[in-house]
Amino acid sequence: MYLLGSHVGMSGKEMMLGSVKEALSYGANTFMIYTGAPQNTRRKKLEELRIEEAGQCMAENGIQNFIVHAPYIINLANTVKPETFEIAVEFLGIELERTAAMGSKILVLHPGAHVGAGEEAGIARIIEGLDKVMSADMPVHIALETMAGKGSEIGKTFEELKAIYDGVRYPEHLRVCLDTCHIHDAGYDIVKDYEGVLAHFDEVLGLDQIAAIHINDSKNPLGAQKDRHENVGKGHIGFETLLRFVSDERFRNVPKILETPWIKENPDDKKSTAPYKEEIERFQNAAKPE
Among 68, 112, 149, 205, which residue's Cβ finds the most Cβ atoms within 10 Å? Predict the structure, then answer.
């Protein structure tokens, strides 16, 4: 059984307990969660999240780990607005504390956008911000996400992530979250050169640094730098390539997380439904070891 799940919500009275139940309803054995809304800094108190009950439900159903995603509003790369950087540092520190309290060891983080100041300045700012929140004995790893390269995003190349590793005080507490849609859109040809791309990553950063993989197809052709996720098998990456990531023995113990779009039966429908149960089932059936 490979570690495969999806992003799940957290709301209502059940909070994190409801998140675990949602993951189980999809047939998942791992999942990804936000500690609150990804678009703002409003957060419920930890004691309201029903963490202990969620942990018990996970234990009863064989879920041993999950990952947390930091909110999108954190931009450590901003050198233009000091107040944006300060808010990012402060909130990242809070999210690290919440991640640990919820029982996860991985916090996925978008490195940030330099907003016109250039990659070098943006990377330097990210390093500065990370050094403010990281410590020698921190219980959580920060997994820098590979990015598609839209706008002024940092992290569109493996070398940019390596530069962050090389600059921080505690690189041993960094990891990488590899997003299939993002690296495809950034120009890494995982369809025609899967092993070549992974060999390049291994040379630059090391495959052992991959702590999470986002499994997403892409609406856009190779190198488009657009970052538009597509449902499994319906985009330019395709099911077979995504299956290689899911079933790759090198990533057996790495949580693989679906972030594919919810589906509407008809374009005019107001409601959409999660595709994760069907997508997980398709992968698990195809990836069963012989």
Answer: 112
Q: For residue range 54-108, what is the model confidence (pLDDT) as tens digits?
A: 999 999 999 999 999 999 899 999 989 999 999 999 999 999 999 999 999 999 9
Query: Which amino acid belongs to residue 85?
Result: F
Identify whether the C-beta of residue 276 lies closer than 8 Å to the C-beta of residue 6: yes
Neighbours of 174 (CB within 10 A): 20
**Tokens (6 digits) for 169:** 């005080």
Residue 202 is classified by DSSP as: H
Q: What separation in angstroms does the CA of 241 have from each of 136, 190, 191, 193, 195?
A: 38, 7, 6, 10, 11
Report phi then psi at 57, rounded to 5: -65, -40
**Cα–Cα distances in angstroms (integers) from residue 209 to residues 1, 4, 122, 150, 192, in the given order:** 22, 18, 22, 24, 23
User: Could you count the other beta carbons within 10 Å of the beta carbon of residue 268?
Assistant: 6
CA-nearest of 105, 127, 102, 103 to 114 is 127
Contact 17, 102 (CB under 8 A): no
**CB environment 73-102: b (16+ within 10 A), e (fewer):** ebbbbbbeeeebbebbbebbeebbbbbeeb
Distance CA 259, CA 223 (A): 20
Q: Reply yes or no on whether the pLDDT at 270 is more than 90.
A: no
**pLDDT tens digit sequence for 96-151:** 999 999 999 999 999 999 999 999 999 999 999 999 999 999 999 999 999 999 99
